[in-house]
Specification:
Elements lengths: L20 H52 L3 E5 L4 H7 L3 H8 L8 E6 L13 E2 L4 E2 L4 E3 L20 E3 L18 E6 L18 E11 L11 E4 L9 E4 L6 E4 L5
Antiparallel strand pairs: 1-2, 1-7, 2-3, 2-4, 5-8, 6-7, 8-9, 8-10, 10-11
Helix pairs in contact: 2-3
């Protein structure tokens, strides 16, 4: 059997060759260009999926609150984490309650839970408030629009500017069903026994839809020894919540995604 006696030659007798340095550099440049073009697009896909997940989560929980209100024939409240927890913690004498509030600090502008004042089977005039859900949080990087927590805008005539209604916490339990922190207003929205949006005491004007804008941004918290005001919120890009809105029809209580088309 005849074999090749020359090194570097294949069976056919042709000399094999590898990549030259120039060819390797060209391939590396092409890979770098593709990465530069493709990575921002991939990050955009991630952000879009995150916002879509947040929208779906909120809509599912709104539907749950409405269904629970109808089935239990009692009002159900979506309670949002207040934005001044540090101030409340500083004034709270109970160590147990302070620990509960500490667990919710990172949920400011993004946390909520469902609460009812009555349960199925309660006798008339008797109430057993309970949390219908655990405390939930929007996906990381997604927030409720900060203006929804501004107490001064509770009665704004424009539904796009109106903030969440507020109830005194001596009336609704917070942060758990056994705690009542009197004098501590909570941002809420509520469904009545017919599944409609409720107007609570202290609000005025005709019934209108509830607009819940979602935003991409970050929350920066001060330490317990620093400022006791609400944390700083940075929305990127500014006012991007105008692109992601959930509308709740006040008459039916049903939620839908609203997209504002550019003029």
């Amino acid at each position: 059997m005849r074999t090749s006696s020359q090194s570097g030659k294949g069976i056919s007798g042709e000399r094999t060759r590898g990549f030259t340095l120039v060819e390797l550099l060209v391939v590396m440049v092409i890979i770098a260009i593709l990465a530069t073009v493709g990575l921002p697009a991939l990050r955009g896909i991630g952000k879009g999926n995150r916002m879509s997940a947040a929208t779906r989560q909120v809509m599912d929980d709104l539907a749950l609150a409405r269904l629970r209100a109808i089935s239990s024939r009692s009002a159900v409240y979506m309670v949002f984490v207040p934005t001044n927890l540090l101030a409340r913690m500083a004034a709270e004498p109970s160590d147990a309650v302070r620990r509960q509030l500490t667990n919710l600090v990172s949920s400011q502008y993004s946390g909520y839970a469902l609460v009812t004042r009555r349960s199925v089977g309660d006798q008339p005039g008797q109430e057993r408030p309970q949390y219908v859900s655990e405390w939930k949080q929007l996906p990381e990087g997604v927030l409720f629009a900060p203006y929804k927590f501004e107490a001064a805008w509770t009665n704004a005539p424009n539904e796009y500017l109106r903030s969440f209604q507020r109830v005194d916490n001596g009336w609704l339990p917070f942060p758990h069903s056994t705690n009542y922190l009197a004098g501590y207003p909570l941002p809420v929205l509520a469904f009545n026994a017919r599944g409609q949006l409720m107007s609570l005491a202290g609000t005025s004007g005709a019934a209108m839809d509830e607009i819940i804008p979602l935003a991409e941004g970050s929350v920066f918290y001060g330490d317990l020894g620093g400022s006791l005001t609400a944390p700083d919120v940075e929305i990127k890009p500014p006012n991007n919540f105008t692109n992601n809105m959930i509308r709740i029809n006040w008459l039916t209580g049903r939620a839908s995604v609203e997209q504002i088309q550019p003029q």
